[in-house]
Amino acid sequence: MKKITIYSLFATSLLLTSCADDYLNTNPESTINEEQLATSPSALQGLVDGVYTGFRTFGNTNSGNHEDYGHKSMLAGLDLMSNDVTMAKSSWYISWYNYTGRVQTNGRSLLPWNTYYLQIKTINTIINTVNQAGVNDSNKYVLGQAYALRALSYFMLARIYGPTYIGHTSDLCVPIYTSVGFEGKSRSNVGEVYALIENDLLKSIDLLNGYTRPTREKVDKSVANALLAQVSLEIGKYTQAASAANAARQGYNLGTEAQWRNGFYDINLTTDAMWGAVINSSNTSFVASFHGHFDNTNTSGYAGGLGIYKNIDKRLYDKISSTDYRKKAFVSPVGGDPSYPQLPAYANIKFIDPTVSDADYIYLRASEMYYIEAEALARSGNETQAKAVLYQITHARDAGYASSLNTGSALIDEIITQKRIELWGEGAAWFDMKIRLGVGLDRNYTGTNHPTFGQLNIPANSSKFLWQIPQAEIDTNPNIVQNPN
């Protein structure tokens, strides 16, 4: 259990302004030369650890923006672009919520670009150094981690700045860099980018066979399989998706109701947490953090302190069974929640940080793998097994759930709905909307609980679901082609 610490907003602002430059510099430039790196597994692991640090560091893009705290911030912002998450006031993340951040002249368009390309630069140093020196037992696990991290980085970039895979493999995606130098390349097509992603993950899985990681902060074979499952589902390789998802979830426990409802603040207490980052008093950025923005109960954070509540969409809440304990993760519109009488209807009480400032980031949970496996099986025609997998996780959350009687598209819709409930606020909803399901944004409906500034309707497959290439890249790279506005 973490030590509980309390900071005021004022103290936190001082912390952020005084310590922003003290984080680990993850640039690959170093006093260690390539020859030394090639013969030093510890130095190579140090570079990989720098990437892990970069994925959870505030201010990596030098923006001073409180939405700029790494991979978890990208997942949070993108969920706010879905139908499923509402925000009560216009503040941080408003430009994600109202789709203005995706425009090239908005500084937010640079956040995902820099978050992942900065780490790709370091990762390419690791991959090229090991491959040039020769893969052996002392460096193969480092290389396996590096391939998985590069795959994830390009996967995120491809889904944000590029179109869906199926039917668009010849369309423009993002530039591919596999060496350290950034010479301003043109955009590769979707098929080329996803081929790199898939190949990197297959290499990673092979290299990480037998690797026992010291903590869940590092990528192991289960995480690489989970990423392959996500990618395979997206590109329509359903047999591979089901197999990888099943392999990924082995050894993880779905947990009890109490364990599921403990706030998602500790990577070691969340039994199905596969991968994330440990946050403590030495690396916290407090309000510029996921729980700072999403913990409605914390009166020292943005959500709870300033009333910038993050709530569940009314329609999705209504889809949750009354016997499903996940419904308790949101304030009931009938009677509220006696523990948090100040919170409005539909406010999330899923994310709670009793440490106030040191909540871990959980990037990936094994629960997602059940839904990927079930959907992939259903799309492959194996509906009996799909229902069995869906029952396994849904009954664990809802004692009143009976095995599904749905078939065809209705079964897939049920799987997706259960996934949206399980992973609310964790970064899956917008990707599923945009990439695989072709669902439009529909917030301006009768009885909506989205505030006026968020009541947008955008048709499926609109260019609005493509982020534009940031202006800084347009200005410095003559080979880049812009996405439509």
From TrEMBL:
Any one GO cellular component localisation term in the record: cell outer membrane
Domain SusD-like N-terminal, first and last residues per copy: 81-233
RagB/SusD domain mapped to chain residues: 353-485
Leader sequence residues: 1-20
Keywords: Cell outer membrane, Membrane, Signal
Taxonomic source organism: Chryseobacterium endophyticum
The name this protein goes by in its record: RagB/SusD family nutrient uptake outer membrane protein
Similarity comment: family membership: Belongs to the SusD family.
Subcellular localization: Cell outer membrane
Keyword Membrane set for record: yes
InterPro entries: SusD-like_N, SusD_RagB_dom, TPR-like_helical_dom_sf
Protein origin, superkingdom: Bacteria
